[in-house]
């Protein structure tokens, strides 16, 4: 769970509400909760590579911690299906960002907009693509908040290097970075991917 010492620029209200969202995730699906933990760590690291102010990086981290909150509204039989999704199941899955925003809003209803906006942006927009072919709204380029573009890259990286029920084995980090580079400027923000690749190739 959250460590208050990390969040010197974030209010106690948003931390408490984020914990409640995390608890909901953990209770419904521990695998999704753990995925969000890993994505949050990469997102926070990426935020610093992009030289975001400390408080902005903290809000990106909080959003990433609960970016898949909407999956608590998806039946587990769909969430963990090993075969291809039906069109109806795919449509259901593609609703999880907007469902996540609704759930987060219900939990964070007493938190001021200025404190929760970045968190909600991450939850709602992390599956948008810079080429406009993402979901749920088909936003493109800088229409997509930077926080969501950062988390989209971190989310994809963790998905590729982790075991999933729908594929035989994960990619290694080098393969995952190549995939991110291949889709840079289309699915993912070119600058965000570039900073991540630059770090791995330099260090």
Quickly count the helices.
10
For the secondary structure, the number of strands is 0
CATH topology: Hypothetical protein af1432
Q: Supply the CATH class.
A: Mainly Alpha
Secondary-structure element order, N to C: HHHHHHHHHH
**Parts with pLDDT < 50 across at least 5 consecutive residues:** none
CATH architecture: Orthogonal Bundle
- Helical percent range? 55-70%
Mean pLDDT: 92
Give me the secondary-structure category: mainly alpha
Distance between the termini: 29 Å
Rounded to an integer in angstroms, the radius of gyration calculated over CA atoms is 16 Å
Question: What amount of the residues lies in strands?
Answer: under 5%
Query: What's the shape?
Result: globular
Say which CATH homologous superfamily is assigned.
Answer: Hypothetical protein af1432
Give the tally of structural domains: 1
Biggest sheet: strands, sense, closure?
none
């Amino acid at each position: 769970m959250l460590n208050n010492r990390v969040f010197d620029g974030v209010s106690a209200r948003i931390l408490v509400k984020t914990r409640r969202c995390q608890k909901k995730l953990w209770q419904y699906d521990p695998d999704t909760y753990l995925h969000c933990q890993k994505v949050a760590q990469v997102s926070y690291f990426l935020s610093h590579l992009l030289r975001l102010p400390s408080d902005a990086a903290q809000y990106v981290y909080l959003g990433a911690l609960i970016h898949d909150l909407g999956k608590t509204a998806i039946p587990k039989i769909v969430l963990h299906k090993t075969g291809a999704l039906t069109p109806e199941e795919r449509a259901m899955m593609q609703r999880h960002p907007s469902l996540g925003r609704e759930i987060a809003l219900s939990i964070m209803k007493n938190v001021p907009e200025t404190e929760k906006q970045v968190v909600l942006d991450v939850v709602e927009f992390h599956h948008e693509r810079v080429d406009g072919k993402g979901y749920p709204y088909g936003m493109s380029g800088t229409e997509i908040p930077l926080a969501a573009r950062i988390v989209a890259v971190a989310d994809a990286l963790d998905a590729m290097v982790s075991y999933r029920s729908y594929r035989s084995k994960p990619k290694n980090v080098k393969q995952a970075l190549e995939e991110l580079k291949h889709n840079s400027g289309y699915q993912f923000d070119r600058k965000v991917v570039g900073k991540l690749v630059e770090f791995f190739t330099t260090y």
